[in-house]
Amino acid sequence: MAKTRSSNSSTSDADEDRVTAPIFTPTLPPRLTSTSHAALVKWRRERREYEETIRSRAKDSAADLIVPVKSTFDEGLLRMWCLLRWKLLIDDVTDSHILAEVDKIIDSVKNNDVPDIDVEMREQLRMDLSEFDVSERVIQYFKECYEIVDDHGWRVFFTGLDGRKQLCRILIASLEPQALRDEVERAVRFQSRKAKEDEVALHDLILTKALDQEKAFQILKRSKRDRGERETGRPSARGAGKPPNKKQRVVETSKGGPRPPLKSETDRPKVPPTPCPHCNDMHWLSECPTATDDQKAEIRRKLRAQRADDSKRKVARTKRLRECLPSEEKSVTLNDKLTVPYCADSGADRSVISRHYVEQLQQLDPSVKVESLDTPFVSETVGDHEVVCTASIHTRLLLNTAAGPVALHEPVECLIVEEEEPEFILGQDVLLSLGIDVDRQLEQLANRVNDVDDGDTELKDDLPDLAHPGTDEELSEALDRLVTMALANGFPHKLEEKVRDIVLKHDIWRLELGKDPPANVEPLKIRLKD
Question: What does pTM read for this prediction?
Fold first, then answer.
């Protein structure tokens, strides 16, 4: 029988009243293919997530939908366990038997070997200082500690009163920064002694101290910003309504033609001339992925203040210029643990290392001890700035050079400076032990120049005619091959255009020695010092 319009409308109304049901993707149980300690920890975590997902979807009928543990056990591995360990038939093994064995393996120490937990925790447990929310930073620190304990099966070591004391001691020892760790240690020792054995009391103490330090840091940061604005003459927010009292700069137009348009942000090169001042990678500060807006503004303010201060600008000119293309060859390895950049041409009498490098080295090698100097050592740097060193360390050095590694078998005494020095300063004492005497080499160079000047007349007639240096096209092809070989050997492709500009900037390359014209430079003048 044909449907009428009224029946069609009633059918459509019924379809509209029908409730749509959500469609879930199938949830598969994790397979048990290995019974190692780490694999079982991961499997138990995934199994709990799987069962919770099934219960939240199926509600009352979850027990019928959850796949048994025995069905997810690898058949060959289960047969071996039944034959060699349990000595049971496969049909007699139940889920509770398997889960009991899994819990037994996870709760036991791996390989029945007690490791150096202090060293392991010091290497793995870290407080995430990039997290700006102090409360979240502290709770994540405790969470990471408990996850490390569970992953290694160390919970048996932290049971009872003595175990809780050991856990609280480890939590305090891995705190960062150093100022927070020192303050918490003093508070636990003299004020909040309950935090020595109670994780909850220790959490509250760390959170309180961390919040206090964050408030002090923000106040100091604002005061520095306000002081910098006053020093550089920038108008504050209260005087924003006043008209600027600045003279208009007069710029003379060029006689050669119209003034070129200003370069926009899109016209600038992709690779900056110097590394990022925040992370030292080759990109612009505005494109830095790790710096926040506040940090970028602070860095720009410091750069503007440095340009405005004449004295700072003169000091900056006396510093050693860094290479545009950073090299990984000039680095030194300390005690075969920590690799840092080094500077060998500073003219320092003693080797110097920064305090933060010493702390990193002590975390990697606990045998490194800081020794106090009997007499403080005063060193003079650029601009008659004095740095006082009161402590030193003895460490083995492995210099990584372009020709290969150079190992110093005897430990070298290094003075410790509190300032943030990015490089390890290699002193003259180390260079002399390697047979490198800069003053002696300069003397030999001066004698050699005199000998060459005296013999120029006699040897001029004996020099053979040199070959033609070659055409520009041949030279360009040879340089292009060198750049291509550098790229093939691992040179970054993003710096290809930069290195080509550097190679071709000056006419210093020759295929063969030829008869080039003499250099057109002014003669040197010697003036006696008063």
Answer: 0.38
